[in-house]
Description:
The protein is 39% helix and 16% strand. The chain has helices at 34-49, 65-76, 107-121, 140-152, 166-175, 193-196, 214-220, 245-261, 265-274, 289-296, 305-316; strands spanning 3-5, 12-14, 17-19, 54-56, 85-90, 92-93, 102-103, 126-132, 156-162, 180-186, 224-228, 281-284.
Amino acid sequence: MNTYSIPHSDLVVSRLAYGTWHMGGSWDHSPVTDELKNRAERLIRTAAENGITHIDLADIYTFGKSDAVVGYALAQNPGLRDKLVLQAKAGIIIGENGDPGRYDFSYEHLVSAVEGTLERLGTDHVELLAFHRPDPLVEYDEIARAVDHLHSSGKVLHFGVSNHNVAQMALLQKHLDRPIVLNQLELNLLHNNLITDGILTNQSDATYTATHSTLEYCRLQNIMIQAWSPIAGGQLFTADENSPENMRNTAHLLQQIAHTHGTTPDAIAFAWLLRHPMGIQPIIGTLNAERIVRAVAADNVELSRIEWYKLLAATRGAGVP
């Protein structure tokens, strides 16, 4: 697979990453089963064998069980850890026992969250840590202290964010001595605000989605954008007569273009993101090994401008202004 160099770092990663959102099974505190461990081992091995070197994690994913089963997969495949870039995320707390779900960018929480992830993974460091959604109560001296400690102790090599807008990135960067290297954001054909924001300037049909100039800012500052939910949770392939017209049209067009390129609609949906000159990295979230292989085929697809804009028009239900 072709690669991206993550800006402000020495990291070289595959163009597609693999996410572990549901890998640990149910979102509760039930124990990890052998079945879940073995499934994770097969999936991580399939991803690696097909050229994916970047694994996305978060301490909250299935209450830490996703970390644990990835750790099992690494333990079962000696030498695999050294071939992978592990990306943790921290900052979200799932509400339990009447307490609300919340964000926590305090020094204590961030450090303990990373240490918990490292323990579950069975490794002494992760290459990347992304702060998982912005915390309205963030104290920037706290997050700066956490970054200094995690980096100086060798537990985290580089830092990024998730779901941050322009002002939030700029304000955070002002307080950090280390650069923000990536921002993980929802982006797909159906959820295309990051891209369409730039072509709707001064248009009456423009809508505010808190994405204003995020793509351009990241491009200006050399911050990689990762796309979570890059195929809209599979909605791009399951449209039927009850689906909105733009979804039906997009699904049909994906089939047509896939036939032209001798590949699958999955690959075309990923290729639409890869075609952007910024170097967007889609994060695959499937638990189906076969779909991992189909997604990787996107690396060999080069959509034409006409194909790319046809897909944009289909999903928007309108051409460009």
